Amino acid sequence: MKLKEIDVYPRLPLPVRSAHGGELVLADGRTVLDLYGGHCVNTLGAGDAGLEAVIVRQWRELSFATNLLDHAPRHAFLEALAPGLPQLPAGEEWQVFCSNSGAEANENALKLALDATRRSTVVCFSGAFHGRTAGAAAVTDGKKAHPSTPFVVKRVPWGDLAAAEAALDASVAAVILEPIQSLAGVTTPTSGFLEGLRRACDASGAALVFDEVQTGNGRLGTPWSAQHFGVVPDVFTTAKGAAGGLPIGLTVARTRFTQHAKHGTLGSTFGGGPLVLAVAAEVARRVNAPGFLANVRATSAALVAAARRGPVVEVRGAGLLLGLVLEEGLKAATVRDQLLERGVLVGTSNDPRVLRLSPALTLQPSDATRLATALEAISLETVR
């Protein structure tokens, strides 16, 4: 009997043989500049030697252990993650729970908020994507939203502070949002929006939850969105790039939203295992190292300058999460294919006019010239 995979991925005709840094090597020997980075996963690039050394050493020393046992990589990870965390007022602290994916991290964030506030409603936004599990899908917009929800959901327009304030009554446990909505087309918050949500949550007692699955781990040129936007949430989540290519989910919360958690409130078989945490610790150390985020910002500036040509009329986003808005009438998928023919891989989004860039954070400013050359080579007549 021949086994087939469930057909849910619209895969590109790209026969990848190997990858190194920000380069994909195809079966015929051609190379492609990877400006998509595995959906914000390849934080340190493909095949990083530092991560390889950590993986080999940890596998040989302690490959896996149940969460009933403590181990050194857990403490090393906590120590490595701490320096980049957003500053809290005196007397407050962060705590973290480890799982396996962004959807799990978001589920756990909402569980903590619902449990701590003893409330039953969550406010979310149009355009949002938080995952495909039941709770995460419940606060996801569009066709990917879950048909039934495990809690009451109020959905308001993205960027509409007045609507969000009106929705924040005494039943609301949490407001969850991506600081930059990546899949929606790299849509950034309007001026004062995040600050207003912070004030509204403070007034109502609801938790402000940032989904940093894509925006975190240095991607915006700061450790977290809180430092980029100057707004500190009560809970934030991340996954994807936090372990540089290994599965991980992190839920980070102020202690007032964790103090009600008991044994059994949260749990994970694989989350917090020694191998993944050893790798995540190395990623955190590298991201927080002197000069690393300065390179992210410099490369971002180079990509923004390189992208403003050919079919691109606007560049959105921050750091190395960028959206390239195309001329009216052009389709992102068609331009993506044209760029791929010219040796550059980019992503698309739910906005049919927006391409996404989310490369490895180790990309160099000089690499941006290849994007500029590819965009200039595109004939607008062939992509209309």
Structure write-up:
The structure is a single chain. The chain is an alpha/beta fold and 384 residues long. The protein folds into 2 domains: 16-34 and 290-383, Alpha-Beta Complex (Aspartate Aminotransferase, domain 1), CATH 3.90.1150.10; 52-287, Aspartate Aminotransferase, domain 2 (3-Layer(aba) Sandwich), CATH 3.40.640.10. The protein is built from 13 helices and 14 strands. It has a 7-stranded mixed sheet, with helices on both faces. Strands 1-2-3-13 form a 4-stranded mixed sheet. The protein has a 3-stranded antiparallel sheet with strand order 11-12-14. The longest helix is centred in the first third of the chain and has 16 residues, at 102-117. The protein is globular and about 55 Å long.
Element layout with pairings:
Layout: E1 16-20, E2 23-26, E3 31-34, H1 37-40, H2 49-61, H3 72-81, E4 94-99, H4 102-117, E5 121-125, H5 134-138, E6 152-156, H6 161-167, E7 172-177, H7 193-204, E8 207-211, H8 225-229, E9 235-238, E10 249-254, H9 274-287, H10 292-307, E11 312-318, E12 321-326, H11 332-341, E13 344-345, E14 354-357, H12 368-377, H13 380-383
Parallel strand pairs: 3-13, 5-6, 5-7, 7-8, 8-9
Antiparallel strand pairs: 1-2, 2-3, 4-10, 9-10, 11-12, 12-14
Helix pairs in contact: 2-9, 3-9, 10-12
Main attributes?
single chain, 384 residues, Aspartate Aminotransferase, domain 1, Aspartate Aminotransferase, domain 2, four-stranded mixed beta sheet, 13 helices
